[in-house]
C-alpha cells in the first residue's frame, strides 16, 4: 500500500499496468509543473521495477524491496540535478556501472531527477545510453521543464504527465502532513504541494510565515529594514528574495484583478500608496536580478537586500 498523493496514483497505476503486461518502455520521462510530485512518483515506480516478484506493484518483502527500503540497493543509481548541473563525466560513470549484470534482482534502474540540469554533453551521452540500453535497464527521468530537453531524448521516452492538483486537493493533502495548517498559510508564496513540504522539512516555515507581518510593520514605519532582515544570512538570502518576490508578484497580479491572499491585504495597500504599479514592477524586476547576481558574484547579501528594501 502506498502513501502516494492521490493525484499521483492514476499515473502510477498506468505504469504498473504497462509493467504487468510487459509493455513498459525502458525509458520514462515524468513531467509536470514544478513541485507537483514528479520525484515522489518516480521513486514509487522505481520500487515497483526493482521488486523481484512478478507483479505490478512492489511486494515490499523480497530482498530487493528490503534493500530499497534501506536505500542500499546496488542496482539502483540516482543523479539529482536540483543542486547543480549534471555533467558528462557523471553520465559516463553511470553508463559503465549499469553495463554490468544486476547484482541482486532482475532489473537495474537509473533515476535522473531534474533532468533539465544536464549540459549538452551530458544530454548527448544520455541519448546514446537511451538508444543502446543495457539489458534489463530502465531510465526514469523527471523534469518540470521538459521542453528544454533534447527533442531526441523526449522522443525516446514514454511521457508520463503529472496533473497539477487543485487548491482544495492541495489543502486536503497538506492536512495529512506535519504543520499542515501552517503550510496552508503560505499559499501566497506557492500552491505547489511538494515545494511547501520541502519548506517544512528544511525548517523554514516560520521564516516565510513571518515575512508578511514584518513587511507590513516596516511599511507602516513601525520597524526599520534591519528588523525585517535580522535573520538574514548568506545561506538563506534566496529564501528572503523568493519571499519578497512572491509578495510583489501577488500584488502585481492583484492590481490586474487576481484575488489576493488575506495575509497580503495590508501590504498591497501600503505598496500601492507608496510606489504605484509601475515602480512596483520595477522593484520586482530588481529583486529577480538581485537573485541572479547573487549566484554569480560575491555581493554582500545583507547590504544588497537592505538597499532594495530601502526603496520600497
UniProtKB/TrEMBL annotation:
It is an enzyme of class 2 (transferase). The gene is holB. NCBIfam families: holB. One of its GO terms (molecular function) is 3'-5' exonuclease activity. This is DNA-directed DNA polymerase. It holds the Pfam family DNA_pol3_delta2. One of its GO terms (cellular component) is DNA polymerase III complex. Keywords: DNA-directed DNA polymerase, Nucleotidyltransferase, Transferase. Its EC number is 2.7.7.7. The keyword Nucleotidyltransferase applies. It catalyses: DNA(n) + a 2'-deoxyribonucleoside 5'-triphosphate = DNA(n+1) + diphosphate. One of its GO terms (biological process) is DNA-templated DNA replication.
